[in-house]
Structure formats: structure tokens, C-alpha cells
Design a protein that fits this description.
binds zinc ion, single chain, Rossmann fold, globular, seven-stranded mixed sheet, alpha/beta, four-stranded antiparallel sheet
Length: about 300
Amino acid sequence: MQKDDNACPSCQRRQLAFQYALTNPEFHTARCRDCGFIAMHPYPSDSFLERHYKERGLYNSEADESAYVRAVADRAKLIEGLLDRAGKRGATGKAVDFGAGAGIGVAAQMSLGFTSLGIETNPHAQSVGRRLFEAEIVDLSLDEMPGELALFTVFEVLEHIKYPREFLAAVCTHMETSGTVLGTVPNYNGLARYIRGKHSIALAWPEHINQFTRATLRRTLEEAGLDVVYIGFPPPYGVVFTFGLRAWILKHLKPAAVAKTTASVITWVKKYIAYPLPNLFAEKTGFLGHGLVFVATKKTQA
Ligand SMILES: [Zn+2]
């Protein structure tokens, strides 16, 4: 059925409450009074989004190789922890990372023993991924994606995709029974939105067309045919506040060794003293954490 881009993307009714005028004031963030889904209003057209993503550079494509190695290890650890929550530690089989970028997610899946494929529309991604990780990254439509997947990962993707429930429902048709779907999205109720409003990452125009809370993410996953195992804020997706103190110290404090030590003390204080309490609050309430991390499994047919 043809969707109405001027209505709520989830329930298609038009009872919308505007929350923010975005950096392009022709667009707003709107909350649906009927179902609670929050999204950009109006939804940008398909042709606009397609043009935007073809022209945009690839995230992190300039990063050096050691940064990629660390990013892959971090991503693998996150995936492993989430598989564990779903009772799937040590699982293998076919896997896809959607919106693969330069292949960090694909490389992480492979390091855990999956047979992995990255899907990415950006033309630079394939060569970068192949060069760095020998990862297979291709531009496929969802229909062309392989079937019987044991694992499907979507990191920072659902906020970019029009009609995310329909997208996930289509993904489910490619999953094996009780296959795992996991990923991340920005948290609409993150600290940054309260402080920076339309300039926060969650509300970035024109890219972030869906804004998720823990409740709306849960409903989106469930209505797509998934059983939600967990939605929360494991590190580094919890509360983030920064005053630029460490950057200032590293630049201005002399000698460099003292600056480095001071900066690492601040890091330690943040990690073990400043963050645990707000992170516990985020985990309990869904508020303040900057990214929602989820793991779900394909519903078994009743
Ligand atoms: Zn709605």
C-alpha cells in the first residue's frame, strides 16, 4: 500500500504534535498523538534521500588502520555480549551487516565465526572494506539479500530508513527461525537532545528521519515480528557528557607526559565515578543514554 509521507510513519494517522523545528525549518520533529512514534515531518522523499546518500562521504573513511582494528574489536565485543543476552553465544552461520560502511560490523561478525556479507549503498565502501578487512560488501536490495540468516546487524541505520517496521518485517523473512537481529539507534531521550535540541545528533537533518525512544523501538521491533530480548545502554552507549577538558589538557599542559597522565586520570574518574550512577538511571528509565542498543530474535510461528 502506498504510504503517506505527511502522516505518522507508524500508524499513518495525522494526529501529530510538533516538537522541534529542525535545522532546515521546513522540517519538524513530530510525535504521533495516537501511537507515540516520533519522526521527521514531513518524511523526506525517496529521491531526496537517495541523492543525499550517494553524494555524502563515507563515515570514518579517513581513519587510520589501527583505529579500524580497535573499532572491529569493540564491535565484536558488543555483538558477542548481545548474542549472550539472547542465549546465542558461540552461534555461527550466515550473517549480514546492513549499512555496512567500511566493513567494521562485517569484520566483527567474521571474527566471531560468522559467514558475513555487508550491504552498503555507498560506492566507496566496497573497496575500503575489501582492502582493510577482505570483507565482502555489496549494494543489494533487501529482496536480493540471502535467506536463512542466523544474524542480522543494523548499527545506526534504522533512524535513516523510511518505515522501519516494514523494513524489519522484510528482514524477518530472510532470517532463520529464532535468528538474531541486533543493532543501535540514537536515543531520542538522550541527554544531548535536552541540552542541544535540534543540534543534537538524534535530530540531525536530513539524515535522522526516525527518532526512537525505548518504548517506540520496542513496539517497532515487536510489530515487525521480533521478540525483544533487551534494549538498553551498554558501554559506550550510555550517558555522555563532555566539557572538552581532556582535549584542552592534552593541548596546553606541559610537559606532555604530565598532560597524558592527567588526562588518563580524568578518564578513569569519568568511567568509574562520574558515569555509573547516570548510566544506572538510563538503564532503569530509558532516559539520558545516548544510544539505544537492542537485541531481538525472530518470533517462532505460533
Ligand atoms: Zn502514529
